[in-house]
Amino acid sequence: MSTEALKMELAQLRKERAAFQAQSELFEKFIAMARSPDEPEVIKAMLRKTVEISIELTGAERGSLFLLDSDGVLADSILCRGETSPELGSVLIEAVLKKGLAGWVMRHRKIGLVNDTGKDDRWLILPNQPYSARSALALPIISGEMMAGILTLVHSLPGHFSQEIVERMKITTGQVALVLENAYLFDNLNESFKSLGKANKKIEAYSRALDKEMENCRQIQKHFLPGQLPSIPNWHFEEFFFPATRVSGDFYDAFMLPGGYTGLVIGDVCDKGVGSALFMALYRSLIRIFSGQAQLSRSLVNTQTQTVGGTRDPASIRNYNQIDAMRTVALTNDYIAQNNELCMFATLFFSVLDPKNGKLVYINGGHETAFVIGRNGVSKRLLPTGPAVGLIPEAKFEYKQIQLKPGEILFAFTDGVPDARSPGEERFTRKRLISLLSQPVATALELMERIGTRLFAHIGKAPQEDDITMLTIQRKIQ
What we know:
By secondary structure, the protein is of the alpha+beta class. The chain has helices at residues 3-35, 42-58, 86-99, 101-108, 163-224, 274-292, 294-303, 314-318, 322-325, 327-338, 430-437, 444-459; strands at residues 62-68, 74-78, 112-114, 135-143, 146-155, 235-242, 250-256, 262-269, 346-354, 359-365, 370-374, 377-382, 400-403, 409-413, 468-475.
């Protein structure tokens, strides 16, 4: 190999070594900044470092760098002039990219070398120039097909940038493009993470507030359910209530009525969540109101009789009976159906018990069949006697009567019992429930414990899909 060829190869190696060193230094700086919490503007710092290394490689006195996005629009910059106001900086950049050397490089995607700024029209003399620039070198920083930026270097003497410097920087800018692209991507990613962090904090705050409101809803709903079931001589009540979520669409109630009667209701509002919980409270309140004022309601409907202060006269209370109380379901149905733009409805079993003789009058409004359980199992099935409540205005509900004998248990429940799923998606089913009801049982508590144990063994670790509610009343053996 000739001496001239060796010199050329050595020169090329030096150029590549200089480019590699520049790239290595930039990468090291980039990694250090990415890891440091004290460097919030990684891309800005990388631009400054790029200009500093380029000045060192070329012996230039000053440098500037414009970073462009994928659309060729200015994304960030470092100016030769140093610190300037944003307004002045925008004016200067616009002028340089339109009429200056950087603009020429951007349009032609070529290196721009100016040996003497006084003799080259591509150089734009800026107003109030704080430094002298007689020679300049502007290089496109290209990543793939995209121009990532424009690097401009200046010197106060003409002819400073030799062809060797140009070749060295041509290799260097190819390496710089990769580092700047990574820094730019990291900066965008970092900003995205910051935005995501802020969004997460807002979501967490909202979630905490929502949790608090849901807990408030749960507490309010809890107070709508009876804190204690009635204590009646020779009768025993048992209840089981296990909501699927914090708020429930299931409800149950047992309360005293005029004439010594006892009202008993279990219901299931369609859908789930807060909406059904609100309607649950409405249904429960209407049933209490209408059942306690059934005689008054009938008088108002039939004779338009007025009362003072919303109270009934003593004769109405004396004449109150179980059949009057059955109007509760129709009145509740009509109120909901006529004021129900959300099409919410409920299935419910409503009954009125005469504790003296065990006579029970009931309406089953589209609800699950209730059962009467004797010592040897199921003795009666109380099937639906009308549609779901709240769907059809002026719907007809038939009432029926039964006699609860000593030892017998009335068992009512919601569809969360038979519909409960196992981890393998198998339902508990009515067949399993009826099988448990058909076995001999002595007390309502024993019955509840038997069903609850089998039911939750079936559910296991599967998520509970629906509210589970059961209600019993047993006539004791005297």
